[in-house]
Design a protein that fits this description.
Layout: H1 2-20, E1 49-50, E2 57-58, E3 69-71, E4 73-79, E5 83-91, E6 101-109, E7 113-118, E8 123-129, E9 133-140, E10 147-161, E11 164-172, E12 175-183, E13 189-194, E14 197-198, E15 203-215, E16 221-229, H2 233-244, H3 250-265, E17 268-271, H4 275-287, E18 293-294, E19 300-303, E20 308-311, E21 318-319, H5 323-326, H6 330-337, H7 339-356, E22 365-366, E23 369-370, H8 379-388, H9 395-407, H10 421-429, H11 454-475, H12 478-487, E24 495-496, E25 501-502, H13 534-537, H14 545-552, H15 555-567, H16 574-580, E26 587-588, E27 591-592, H17 611-625, H18 643-651, E28 653-654, E29 662-665, E30 672-676, E31 682-688, E32 696-702, E33 705-706, E34 711-713, H19 714-717, E35 721-728
Parallel strand pairs: 31-35
Antiparallel strand pairs: 1-2, 3-6, 4-5, 5-10, 6-7, 7-8, 8-9, 9-16, 10-11, 10-15, 11-12, 12-16, 13-14, 13-15, 17-30, 18-21, 19-20, 22-23, 24-25, 26-27, 28-29, 29-34, 30-31, 32-33, 32-35
Length: about 750
């Protein structure tokens, strides 16, 4: 009897213990939007509230996490990390103004909702988002005072009538964004705000328009929900009802958002590793869905590329993507996991080329059109990569629009002008010319700040021309494939055999004298390179690293030069170095983790016969520069441009050369990772014994067969595969090091 009572008591205790354990985390619970919210130098990562690739995108109206005041509350962000349309303010003060800066505290942000206490603890705010609508809940902790909510627009219209508010804001010469919203509490007064008072006016169209809605004392809670549209205010109202129905239900909107994020993030499942590593992985993966955004509304979309509304034909229209940043890893990540979405995105860009009238592939497609920022024309890489991975992309249109963008538009950075004299020089001589020291710029298309960036342009265009050759090869157009393959070696025209660097040349074919690969070229080395110095651009031959090894004197020499890159001192005090290279943070020697042209550099050891050094460097980069804290991103993140590197590298592989359907192997952080592929298939990566110390691959099998190559193809995994890596604390310098195991490159010369 005593024994049975004892057993029963133990069972009760056990069940109580089980009942008190924390519920198992879902993927969205690992997302920490605050990671990187304080910048190392330039722009921080904003903690974004948004469903995957959705037009409704919101973050707190402040410059970074250290900012003391919120400049009102956001309604929608219309361009990645740049500007917000409309703002909402709530105050219980008697003095009224269109935007009320407020203190903030007790903030909590998830990918799908936002909670904060404002106005010195007197108002609680909650927000939840859908794709083209959102809902605010405002809890007034001092109900004895009346409360006023204002909605403000710059350069737009505003209307209010009782509990309804709507408006528009001009974003460019041919584009507006609209909102239509309603409160759940009937106000005692509504109208336009004039000189600190609520007037009897109900509608305005002016540079600063503000609607004010006043609720009486005793009001404890007010909800405001609204839809947005790029088509019309009427469409904004339809979007709201389509997504939220007729009822105010912030809990349901948040629950639906949480469900969608969990389903999306569950495409990747990991075991092992630390909670911090999982947080960095899932936060990075969430960042890759911030852009581009889907503009389709009930099968129609407004395009700023021609200023018209179009039917989408069943293919959603996407924009807001800085391709210079995202072609390297964000697009390949989507091509692997969400190929149907990648197909729609590329089709969107082909439509943009047609809508612009030039048939030039866009380079920086934003909400308001193609801004032609940075250098080169890397949309061609997305097309080539997608085709060779089996995605359904129109090769003929892709080839023609990419070719025309490269050959008919100027190669001058940050310009959308037609090709001119400098472009003809490139065609005739195979390199983009630099100005001599003291020589004045005379070409009108060249920006005084961005300058010519001749090495970045030459190397980037050589890669783009290789991508053109890959598209032509895919289409069976042998002559064009051969033509553009030959042009893809133009990087050799600026290679300096004496220094083993890419070195700017003047128009006479002379290397610039007295040139310092660390510091010459001015701010961001833009007179020679682009945002990064010669140590970074030395490795910017993604398509032909085998040939680069040959130029350097062989694979062993390449390995030594890589070692030098990670060991070479900055050469100046940090404040001086970063004063010249603000984009080149996250340093390990002259290597910079913070800018996209560097992302593939740690993997180049695989081409140099030393895969174990890639394994070491990848772990070093991830552990040093990507952390679960407010400064856990080393530089500008650019909406998936950098965090897609973290996703791939944490899983253990990376697409060094978009255009080759292949992946380099690194060093997985997790003992078990599963990547969900279309059709219910799965890529399973098992890293036995992986830990902080056990970062080196001892041996490998792929689908049960011994694998002695530091890479695999897309075809190897697209139908489901299992990669098993035996990990250890010391390098196996023989694994994957044979010359025949080198990852794919274009032919050497």
């Amino acid at each position: 009897m005593k024994k049975s009572l004892k057993n029963a008591f133990a069972a009760i205790l056990a069940s109580a213990f089980v009942g008190c354990t924390a519920p198992e985390k879902e993927p969205v619970d690992y997302v920490n939007p605050y990671v990187g919210s304080i910048s190392h130098l330039l722009v921080p990562c904003f903690p974004t509230i948004q469903l995957p690739n959705s037009l409704m995108r919101i973050y707190p109206t402040r410059s970074d996490y250290t900012t003391e005041m919120l400049d009102g509350l956001p309604v929608v962000v219309t361009n990645h990390r740049e500007r917000s349309a409309f703002r909402l303010s709530v105050t219980q003060d008697d003095a009224l103004r269109d935007i009320v800066p407020v203190t903030w505290d007790n903030e909590h942000i998830t990918p799908y909702d936002y909670q904060v206490t404002i106005a010195d603890g007197s108002i609680d705010v909650r927000l939840a988002v859908s794709h083209q609508s959102a809902i605010y809940e405002l809890t007034l902790l001092d109900p004895d005072k009346p409360a006023t909510v204002t909605l403000f627009t710059e350069n737009g219209t505003m209307q209010t009538d009782g509990s309804s508010v709507g408006g528009s804001q001009r974003l460019s010469h041919n584009m507006k964004i609209y909102f239509s919203g309603e409160f759940d509490v009937q106000p005692e007064q509504s109208g336009l705000l004039r000189d600190g008072r609520i007037s009897g006016e109900k509608e305005a169209d002016e540079p600063r328009a503000c609607a004010a809605v006043r609720f009486p004392a005793g009001t404890k809670k007010v909800q405001f929900r609204y839809g947005i549209s790029l088509i019309s205010q009427e469409q904004a109202a339809k979007n709201l009802v389509r997504e939220q129905g007729k009822d105010f239900n912030i809990a349901k909107v948040a629950a639906d958002g949480r469900k969608e994020w969990n389903e999306t993030l569950s495409n990747i499942r990991v075991e092992g590793g630390t909670d911090d590593q999982k947080t960095v992985l899932y936060t990075s993966y969430y960042r890759t869905f911030e852009r581009p955004v889907c503009l389709s509304e009930d099968g129609r979309y407004f395009s700023a590329f021609d200023g018209k509304v179009h039917d989408d034909g069943g293919h959603p229209f996407y924009t807001d993507d800085w391709i210079w940043d995202t072609y390297r890893a964000a697009h390949p990540l989507r091509a692997l996991i969400q190929p149907a979405k990648e197909e729609d995105i590329i089709e969107s860009y082909l439509r943009m080329a047609e809508q612009m009238g030039t048939c030039w592939m866009p380079t920086f497609p934003e909400m308001t059109g193609d801004t032609r920022r940075m250098n080169s024309n890397h949309g061609v890489a997305m097309v080539a990569d997608a085709l060779w991975k089996g995605l359904d992309v129109d090769a003929a249109r892709g080839f023609e629009y990419c070719r025309r963008g490269i050959e008919e538009k100027t190669l001058v950075p940050w310009s959308g002008a037609p090709a001119g004299r400098l472009d003809q020089f490139y065609k005739d001589n195979g390199y983009f010319p630099a100005l001599r020291d003291g020589e004045q710029e005379t070409e009108p298309t060249v920006s005084g700040f961005e300058q010519r960036q001749p090495i970045a342009v030459t190397l980037g265009t050589a890669y783009d021309q290789w991508c053109l050759s890959r598209i032509a090869e895919f289409m069976g157009r042998k002559d064009e494939a051969a033509k553009y393959l030959a042009l893809s070696y133009n990087y050799r025209n600026v290679w300096n055999d004496g220094t083993l660097f890419f070195h700017p040349k003047d128009e006479d074919g002379n290397f610039l004298p007295n040139f310092d690969y660390r510091f010459s070229g001015g701010i961001g080395a833009r007179a020679a390179y682009g945002e990064n110095n010669g140590w970074t651009y030395r490795w910017d031959v993604q398509h032909n690293l085998a040939d680069l090894a040959q130029l350097m004197g062989g694979r062993e020499a390449m390995s030594r030069e890589l070692d030098r890159t990670f060991a070479e001192p900055m050469g100046k005090a940090k404040w001086q170095f970063f004063g010249e290279f603000p984009d080149q943070t996250g340093n390990i020697g002259q290597f910079t983790m913070a800018n996209e042209p560097s992302l593939h550099i740690p993997y180049i050891y695989n081409y140099a016969g030393a895969p174990w050094k890639t394994q070491k460097r990848i772990r070093q980069c991830l552990e040093t520069w990507f952390r679960n804290d407010l400064m856990g991103v080393p530089g500008d993140e650019d909406g998936g441009g950098m965090t897609s590197f973290v996703v791939f590298s944490s899983l253990g592989f990376y697409p060094v050369t978009p255009g080759f359907p292949a992946y380099n192997i690194g060093s997985p952080l997790f003992t078990d990772a599963r990547v969900k592929l279309p059709g219910g298939k799965e890529f399973h990566i098992v890293a036995k014994g992986a830990s902080r110390e056990n970062k080196f691959i001892q041996s490998a099998t792929l689908n049960g067969k011994a694998w002695d190559k530091p890479w695999f193809t897309h075809d190897d995994i697209k139908d489901g595969a299992t990669l098993v890596l035996e990990m250890g604390s010391r390098p196996n310098k023989q694994w994957g090091s044979a010359a025949e195991a080198m990852p794919p490159s274009a032919p050497t010369r």
